Automatic annotation (TrEMBL), chain B:
The gene is sigW. One of its GO terms (biological process) is DNA-templated transcription initiation. The keyword rRNA processing does not apply. The lineage of its organism: Bacteria, Pseudomonadati, Pseudomonadota, Alphaproteobacteria, Rhodobacterales. Belongs to the sigma-70 factor family. ECF subfamily. It comes from Roseovarius halotolerans. This is ECF RNA polymerase sigma factor SigW. Keywords: DNA-binding, Sigma factor, Transcription, Transcription regulation. Residues 32-96 form the RNA polymerase sigma-70 region domain. Residues 125-176 form the RNA polymerase sigma factor 70 region 4 type domain. One of its GO terms (molecular function) is sigma factor activity.
Amino acid sequence: MNDDDITALKAHFEAARSHAARPSEALLARVLADAMQIQEEQAETPAPQGRAPAHEAGFWRQVFQGLGGWPALTGLATATVVGIWIGASPPSGLEGYLAEGEAAFVVDLDPWDAFDLASVIEGAM
Amino acid sequence: MPLDAMKDISDDALLVLFANGDRAAARALTLRLTPRVLAHAQRLLGNAAEAEDVAQEAMLRLWKVAPDWRQGDAKVTTWLYRVVANLCTDRLRKARPLPLDAAPEPLDTAQGADAALQGAARVDALQKALVRLPRRQRQAVVLRHLEDLGNPEIAGIMEISVEAVESLLTRGRRALAAELAGRRAELGFADEHE
């Protein structure tokens, strides 16, 4: 763009800024009427409440929330299934820990850590 | 509360008052924001009747969002410029392009036109050139040169980088200059150099 282009554009922009459309009385009245109507509707509608406090929730919901919700429950379920599987069909590496005729089960104390093995001699329970 | 007492209250504080049922806040916001919203819509659309509809719809959306408005999150005007642009885009997508002979005739300023008439003719010529620009270039040019906003605010409204805004502005200005170059004598620019 040359200087003439820039000068002309500036003049156009200046003219447009000083000739901005002005709202008619009718438009302002319509906008204000909308505002009043929305205000009335919002006054009639009670403000949305936040999440229900824990004491109002049901017992199982409290247990669920206490455990940490779905993410925690998913980890817990996975660890339980793995524990049952290892108990039912122990890997060969575990056989040395178990004497013949002993019942064995795995206690999963922390799903993010290694499994702790408990060996209970039958009859000691 | 009288309107005069509200002139120093920010837009978002007025919106909170509106949400609390303050009717004076509704009037103050209507008078303060409707002119800006209407002018912006008309510049993007080039059509007065459609611009009025867009302005009313944008303000209606503002009233509805008021109870959820969080002070300090965004400027009310930034939010409104974005809503107006979206509403205009929807209308422009649905609209059939006007045949050239349906566009208003340019004002005749060739013989003895006074300054006011010449100004109106320049506005008319600019508006016609603006509606020929690609939508994003038009929006950037209007926000920068007609709404007088800074590039960072424009970037926020258009949800693009400041560099992208600068690129749109450069291309938009170049296209406008090319579009208007042929009408300089008709619009009185030849006289200004003499």
